[in-house]
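Narrative summary of target 7.
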Amino acid sequence: MGVPQAVADDEPDPWAEGPAPTPVADPPQLAHRVPATLRSGRLALDGRAVAALAVVCLVAVGVAVGYVIRGRPTGVAVPAARAAVVAGPSSAPSAPSSLSATPSAGGLVVVHVAGAVRHPGLVRVAAGSRVADAIAAAGGARPGTDLTSVNLARPVVDGEQVVVGGAAGT
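Modeled conformation, tokenized:
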């Protein structure tokens, strides 16, 4: 098959199937060169074309599902908190020169507890402890102290300061 030759207006349309459509009053210039299946709005596909179209659709769906799966957020494991407090209120805080910025041996962290607690200062608590554990290690809050502004359930990190009942020293 070669390139289709131009068809004269008086020759029959080689692409036409069935009777020729009735001409319109002023047909567009290229309308008579469009295949009849496209002019009539019906397009017949053979089995291979349908199979190829199905494969293309399946690949597109597979790519879309892959992007959705890769784009989902992943969970992050949170270590379980140890409730045991290592340093109690009776232990005296050690000298600042013996403290380091990293958790010390044995999984301990150093926290500065200030404000309305019985023994303000540096306390050592187990890594993964909560603010409530650090306050308990500092002897607990003084009687009448409002703890609603303190998140007692938040895990503490090494080197942080926990202020109870407002500014330090109040």
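The longest strand covers residues 108-115.
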